[in-house]
């Protein structure tokens, strides 16, 4: 049901975000939308100054802004310290999370008699649960999901269509895995013998902590021995590849197309932007931030911001790339100096020649 701005402001304040409303507090809000799409009964937000001009053209009934943001005269706003956090809370309050269809174990799901199924599990048609699997309470398995023998899923997990969990893998509570992702496939384990590669049996597992969310079409290799682990609270975008035996810490954020080779150790609260690649057997410390398209070839200490190919600490990388952008100019200058040097050497040679001395 639509809520008044005064009620929304009161809600945000009750959640620890002190909120001040300027404008028509009786405006009724039914949805959250972008500045460009919002209508008179919708609320939007501004957290990036890049979109500041849109404040003058948006049709939104209200806009969540920072405490200090200048706004056009007559614009109804909610002022908070953190607009992004506020709009996150409002999306949850107004729209809620996705509701899953179905209830119970569908007649066309294939569940082995030895599997343990928790209370209120929702296993849809076409899902397969193999022998010895343990599934917690309120778990949702969409069509096409395959959970292999001996795997364990905690409470409140959601696996979207065509997710595959290989044998023996373990998922914590509240793990969400989006469509077409694969957990626990064999890692790239081969031993060279002569001119041929011989497969090494991958006898480890994958262990995923609580509150992890994995995007679509991600792959997490099982370990050759031991386990590949994803720490609690970590979030993956789409198309993430984690190599065998790697250990990812708690509360990390990996953006699309990050690739981690085998036996890498990643600390806690590490952020990797799109298309970051990490070579094998490296250690990345806590609270590291790595910029998009970076190639990590060496260990990175904690609390470092890095980018480049190879990735370097931010200040060093900026100096390197500042020089790279001047290379054409420096090349032209070098060629000019070489020509001047050649002419100077010729002049000196001429002055020292026997003919000139006569």
Write a compact overview of the structure shown.
The protein is of the alpha/beta class. It is built from five helices and 39 strands.
Outline the structure in words:
It is flat, with a radius of gyration of 29 Å. It contains five helices and 39 strands. With 358 residues, it is an alpha/beta fold. It has a ten-stranded parallel β-sheet with strand order 8-11-14-17-20-25-28-31-34-37, with no helix packed on it. A nine-stranded parallel β-sheet has the order 9-12-15-18-23-26-29-32-35, with no helix packed on it. A six-stranded mixed β-sheet has the order 27-30-33-36-38-39. The model has no long low-confidence stretch (mean pLDDT 95). The chain has three domains: 3-94, MurE/MurF, N-terminal domain (Udp-n-acetylmuramoylalanyl-d-glutamate--2,6- Diaminopimelate Ligase, Chain: A, domain 1, 3-Layer(aba) Sandwich); 110-316, UDP N-Acetylglucosamine Acyltransferase, domain 1; 327-357. Helix content is 17%, strand content 27%. The chain starts with a strand and ends with a helix.
Fill in the keyword field for this structure.
358 residues; alpha/beta; Udp-n-acetylmuramoylalanyl-d-glutamate--2,6- Diaminopimelate Ligase, Chain: A, domain 1; UDP N-Acetylglucosamine Acyltransferase, domain 1; 3 domains; ten-stranded parallel beta sheet; nine-stranded parallel beta sheet; 5 helices; 39 strands
Biggest sheet details:
10 strands, parallel
Distance between the termini: 107 Å
The quaternary state of the protein chains shown equals single chain
In terms of DSSP E residues, the strand content is 25-35%
CATH architecture of the largest domain: 3 Solenoid
User: How much helix, percentage-wise, in residues?
Assistant: 10-25%
Spatial ordering of strands, largest sheet: 8-11-14-17-20-25-28-31-34-37
Radius of gyration: 29 Å
Instruction: Tell me the structural class.
Output: alpha/beta
CATH topology (fold) name of the largest domain: UDP N-Acetylglucosamine Acyltransferase, domain 1
Tally of individual domains: 3
Shape: flat
Under CATH, the homologous superfamily of the largest domain reads Hexapeptide repeat proteins
């Amino acid at each position: 049901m639509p809520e008044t701005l005064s009620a929304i402001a009161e809600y945000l304040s009750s959640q620890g975000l002190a909120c001040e409303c300027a404008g028509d507090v009786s405006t009724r809000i039914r949805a959250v939308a972008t500045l460009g799409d919002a209508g008179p009964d919708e609320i939007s937000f501004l957290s990036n100054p890049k979109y500041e001009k849109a404040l003058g053209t948006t049709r939104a009934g209200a806009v969540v802004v920072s405490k200090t943001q200048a706004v056009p005269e007559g614009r109804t706003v909610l002022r908070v310290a953190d607009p992004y956090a506020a709009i996150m809370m409002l999306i949850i309050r107004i729209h809620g999370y996705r509701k899953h269809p179905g209830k119970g174990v569908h007649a066309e799901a294939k569940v082995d008699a030895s599997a343990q199924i928790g209370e209120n599990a929702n296993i849809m048609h076409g899902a397969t649960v193999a022998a010895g699997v343990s599934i917690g309470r309120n778990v949702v398995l969409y069509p096409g999901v395959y959970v292999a023998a001996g795997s364990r899923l905690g409470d409140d997990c959601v696996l979207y269509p065509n997710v595959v969990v290989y044998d023996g893998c373990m998922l914590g509570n509240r793990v969400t895995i989006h469509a077409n992702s694969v957990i626990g496939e064999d890692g790239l384990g081969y031993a060279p013998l002569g001119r041929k590669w011989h497969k090494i049996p991958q006898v480890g597992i994958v262990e995923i902590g609580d509150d992890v969310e994995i995007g679509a079409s991600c792959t997490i290799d099982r370990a050759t021995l031991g386990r590949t682990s994803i720490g609690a609270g970590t979030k993956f975008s789409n198309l993430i590849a984690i190599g065998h035996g790697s250990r990812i810490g708690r509360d990390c954020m990996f953006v699309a197309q990050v690739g981690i080779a085998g036996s890498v150790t990643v600390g806690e609260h590490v952020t990797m932007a799109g298309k970051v690649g990490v070579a094998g057997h490296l250690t990345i410390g806590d609270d590291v931030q790595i910029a998009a398209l970076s190639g990590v070839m060496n260990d990175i200490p904690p609390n470092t911001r890095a980018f480049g190919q190879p990735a370097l600490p931010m200040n060093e990388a900026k100096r390197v790339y500042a020089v790279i952008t001047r290379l054409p100019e420096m090349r032209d200058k070098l060629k000019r100096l070489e020509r001047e040097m050649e002419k100077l050497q010729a002049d000196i040679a001429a002055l020292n020649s026997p003919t000139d001395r006569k």
